[in-house]
Design brief:
Layout lengths: L8 E3 L7 H18 L19 H20 L10 H4 L24 H21 L2 H34 L26 E4 L2 E5 L7 E2 L6 E5 L2 E4 L5 H9 L11 H10 L7 E4 L2 E6 L2 E4 L11 H10 L7 H8 L6 E2 L21 E2 L2 E7 L25 E4 L16 E3 L8 E2 L3 E3 L1
Parallel strand pairs: 10-11, 12-15
Antiparallel strand pairs: 1-4, 2-6, 3-5, 6-16, 7-8, 8-9, 12-13, 13-14
Helix pairs in contact: 1-4, 1-5, 2-4, 2-5
């Protein structure tokens, strides 16, 4: 996820993967991006309601630029750019690649048209497939990890496209919907599991990715950390519990807040989570399904780190560190309300024993600043610009959200955002000392 959810990779799959499998993944992810924008109008495709968001059209073009710039330009015989101007327009922030259009002005790019961007995607997809089918084994071994990186990069932008579209739509008085309301997503009774805590041993533990599977460079190297004994909440904090914080004057009580957080809520006049609205009919929440009654049993979402920390203080608890979260998640199956569930919103937890909702629903703020692991070195070349240069003034989130693909998330995944960011699906899991 740079004020965004985008990361990069330096640790790739070492084991050989059949070309057909890699191309199948490439085509499936590229196809999903097209399906994802199908509910949007041409006018929707160019919207950029704030500097941190990007227009859907730009996401489609940038993810294509990635494959053209980092693979075709380097390895395609007789390479010619689809459009030389796209190198500037759809570069995000790669200084070593060249110039780029200012991020806050992406919404001003009425041209190229959506049709031209879709032609661009089709052209690059076909050329990449031809390159893979015709290249020798040595070239394939070089470009395979770049294709894998590119598909994970596109999945990150798919997640951003959901969250950016939600923010864009939220500012429209017509309260437009990305998807019509469907069965199974009605307001649930407040029947979630009681909030309990599971104890975890302290001592020396290892966190971080090893070299056997795909991972982003900021997840490495694997290293030991010393943890004090701690306990972690069995589930995420709900809308109902956060409403208690609001009704107890949480947003008016300075002692609960970090100094920068208190200044932020005073300046911005925050009084509730980003998409909550208080109406004559009660609390409502804007979602990809439009404006709906607030589901009290669902996890609270779209909170800044400042709000998460203030709630934890109010509750007499704290936020977990990323190492604590990772130890708890290690060995747990990648299961939960992720994008594959197709809910596109957080849903109430099931009544069951043990730790729940580690994956999906909302990204979980941790108390850990986004710093390099011991021994971290940014990879050489342009991909080295993904993560290392953003390791300042950001906080780590873990676990993925309701718009994160299941084959994209893992226990070691480190997302990062500034402490005041809240347009992402971000929420709270409480922790405490033993």
């Amino acid at each position: 996820m740079v004020s965004r959810s985008e990361n990069s990779a330096s640790s790739f799959v070492d084991a050989e993967q059949p070309v057909a499998d890699q191309l199948r993944r490439f085509r499936a992810i590229r196809c999903f991006s097209r399906d994802q924008v199908a509910p949007l109008s041409v006018e929707d495709m160019g919207l950029q309601a704030m500097a941190d968001a990007s227009p859907p059209k730009w996401h489609l073009a940038h993810t294509t630029w990635f494959f053209e710039t980092f693979i075709l330009e380097q390895f395609e015989p007789g390479f010619k750019p689809f459009n030389p101007q796209f190198r500037h327009l759809f570069n995000s922030y790669y200084e070593t690649v060249g110039t780029f259009h200012p991020r806050p002005q992406r919404g001003l790019l009425s041209r190229p048209s959506v049709a031209e961007v879709l032609d661009y995607r089709a052209n690059i997809e076909q050329r990449l497939q031809t390159l893979v089918e015709q290249c020798d084994k040595r070239t394939w071994q070089t470009i395979e990890p770049l294709i894998l990186l590119g598909t994970h990069h596109e999945q990150q932008h798919q997640e951003l496209l959901f969250t950016d579209t939600l923010y864009n739509f939220s500012l429209n008085p017509l309260a437009p919907t990305y998807r019509n309301h469907q069965g199974g997503l009605s307001v649930a009774p407040e029947s979630h599991s009681p909030l309990t805590f599971t104890d975890f041993d302290g001592g020396l533990h290892e966190i971080g990715a090893d070299s056997s599977d795909f991972s982003f460079d900021n997840e490495s190297p694997r290293h030991p950390v010393y943890l004090q004994p701690y306990r972690l909440a069995n589930r995420l904090v709900t809308n109902s519990e956060y409403l208690e914080f609001i009704e107890d004057q949480g947003y008016q009580t300075a002692v609960l807040w970090l100094s920068d957080g208190w200044a932020k809520i005073q300046n911005e006049q925050w009084q509730q989570p980003l998409y909550w609205q208080q109406t004559e009919e009660g609390w409502r929440e804007f979602s990809l399904y439009g404006l709906r009654p607030l589901d009290l049993a669902a996890p609270v979402s779209h909170l800044s780190y400042f709000e998460a920390d203030a709630f934890a203080t109010w509750a007499g608890k704290r936020l977990p560190t990323e190492a604590e979260w990772e130890q708890a998640a290690a060995g747990q199956p990648i299961a939960g309300n992720l994008l594959d569930s197709d809910h596109l919103k957080p849903v109430p937890s099931a009544a069951s024993d043990g730790i729940q909702q580690l994956y999906g629903d909302v990204w979980e703020w941790t108390a850990s600043p986004y710093n390099p692991y011991p021994g971290f070195k940014a990879p050489a070349g342009p991909v080295g610009e993904y993560n290392g240069k953003f390791m300042c003034n950001q906080m780590v989130l873990r676990g993925g959200s309701c718009v994160t693909p299941a084959d994209h998330i893992r226990a070691t995944y480190r997302n990062f955002f500034p402490a005041d960011a809240r347009w992402q699906f971000s929420g709270i899991r409480l922790a405490d000392w033993i």
